[in-house]
Design a protein that fits this description.
Blueprint lengths: L3 E11 L4 E9 L4 E8 L3 E8 L2 E9 L4 E5 L2 E2 L9 H13 L1 E13 L8 E12 L12 E6 H10 L5 H12 L5
Parallel strand pairs: 4-9
Antiparallel strand pairs: 1-2, 2-3, 4-5, 4-7, 5-6, 5-10, 8-9
């Protein structure tokens, strides 16, 4: 027997961005329970770097009622079969207008696997050239910010940058030697 077996599953909410389901489960001990699961497509997060500076985006995050600074990131609900590289290049172009001559794959992480199946692919983008943004309607307030690596690190330490995916992507890329 698995650690946890699914006895029943029902969708309790669904829209084009996510599905919420409730699963009736059986634990190896014989105890039954429920598990709430949020299903979302994997996304890409991109660290655009140029001359010891990174490009970030700032946007209003409705769920917390604040503007936040983070690396460009996103998923394509309408193109679920896109490769992570295609998604990363597309999101970078859409949100910042940047095109990368070089995209390096850093790794894959899960966002919050305690309740959600979503993960993310991390890329470092370099050899950048500027083009036009192509923002989605949901991103109409998005601003692009160029920041030195030193300022970026200090903003993480000070708690000014709170996006866990951005902090994690930067940390993993640094540990793997992608950022010098």
């Amino acid at each position: 027997m698995k650690d946890i077996e699914t006895l029943d599953s029902k969708i309790v909410y669904q829209n084009k961005w996510l599905t919420v389901r409730e699963d009736k489960i059986l634990r190896a001990s014989g105890n039954e329970g429920i598990y709430g699961v949020v299903e979302k497509p994997d996304f890409a997060i991109i660290i655009p770097i140029e001359d010891d500076h990174v490009y970030l985006v700032e946007q209003y995050r409705y769920t917390i009622g604040e503007r936040q600074i983070e690396f460009p990131q996103g998923a394509w609900e309408d193109k679920p079969d896109s490769s992570p590289l295609e998604l990363a290049a597309g999101e970078l172009r859409e949100e910042t207008g940047l095109r990368a001559g070089k995209m390096e794959y850093v790794g894959f992480q899960y966002l919050a696997y305690g309740f959600c199946n979503q993960g993310y692919h991390i890329f470092v983008a370099s050899d950048l050239s500027q083009g036009e943004q192509d923002l989605d309607r949901e991103e109409e307030d998005l601003k692009v910010i160029k920041m030195s690596l030193t300022d970026f690190k200090n903003k993480i330490i000070a708690g000014d940058i709170k996006d866990a995916s951005s902090c994690n992507a930067f940390g993993l890329a640094s540990l793997k030697g992608f950022l010098g």
